[in-house]
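INFO batch 0412 | record 1 of 1 | parsing
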Amino acid sequence: MGKFKLAVQFGTESLALSRKINNPERIAKAHNTLGITYTFMGRYSKALEKHLESLRIRESLSLEPASIQSLNNIGILYHNMGQYQKAIEYYQQILPRIAQRLDDPRHILVHLNTGFAEYKLGRLDEALRHHQQAMAQIQKNRQTALLAYACFNLGITYTDLKRFPQAHRYLDRALAEYGKKGQEHGRAQVLNGLGRLHLLTRNPGRGILCAREAAALALRINAREELKASYELLALLYEQLGDPAQSYRYYKSFIATKDSIYTQQENGRIAEISLNLATLRKDNEIDLLKREKIIASLKYEKGRYFVIVIISALVFTIGAAGILIFYNGKIRKHKKSLQSSNLLLEQLNAELHEKINEIRTLSGLLPICSQCKKIRNDRGYWEQLEGYISEHTSATFSHGICPHCAEELYPEATEWLRAKGQDAT
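INFO prediction complete | emitting tokens
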């Protein structure tokens, strides 16, 4: 509504309350609101200070949409200070963050703001491209909130491209849209745009009417940038009209307003804040490097533990393999011993069977001659006792003579041996 003093009052009270309840998100929002207000008032150093603080808090809280808003506001601030390339740099930081969300109103706003900065740099074709992209998205997604701004940007771009009918059509539409919303700052901008259009089409009378209305609005809402633009435009229009006295008067007003915006102290303050911004960026880079170092260290530790686990697994595997080989050797050794034992056992078993067979052969009733002691075999033949036993067992015979038979058969020799004290056997 252009009531900037009241906006500053409420913004300051909001900041104090947010600090009292220790709510960082609301603190950042209050700083952002004050930054926007100070930008409209032309107090750029104060605005930059507020926006940078808002951005710092929002980035620390990982508030992505809010951070994008702060980046956009800083871009607008640099735009108002005439540092258009700096403004574009901030706008370009936003686009990668919302590249996949073409229906996002912020995507439209970035195109509009980038186009406005390109327009100020004199790159009209690039400016027109951004504005047309924004307008296409507005019409496709029905984002009417930004329609007035888009029409204004297209109007002033077509003006500089000397395409005056299109310029007039878009500026009239922008003025109507801002009027519906009661946005007096926007109306002041459009009226200045119409005044410049009339200047270029050599219609100074209508241009002066538009510029005076813009100046009155800018004075009422304390919009010093728009007031400066109105005074400069009026000086040019009166010069075109052939009234040098009025032209000179407005030109002096233009210089005074410009000087009130860009004082030496203000410029020094802006330089100081820019230095703080560079320091903040450097600190962020250092923090990023530290995080990368920590991540690299963690990756190294992870790799080291992985190697330790692999080596431990290999040692365990080798140890287990050694134990298996050792016990496998023992098993083979015991197996050979068992095989030898089994072979010996088989031999003993065979001998045992043989002995059992001998026992079976010699057991039971054997027909033997009571006179000559011959044994009848299985075939019915009589054979000598020693022959039968030798055939059926492993026993062999050696012949001798018992004392009874020796005395009976050889009495003289037996007597002679007994006389000499020897055994006849």
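INFO post-check: The mean pLDDT is 81.
INFO record closed
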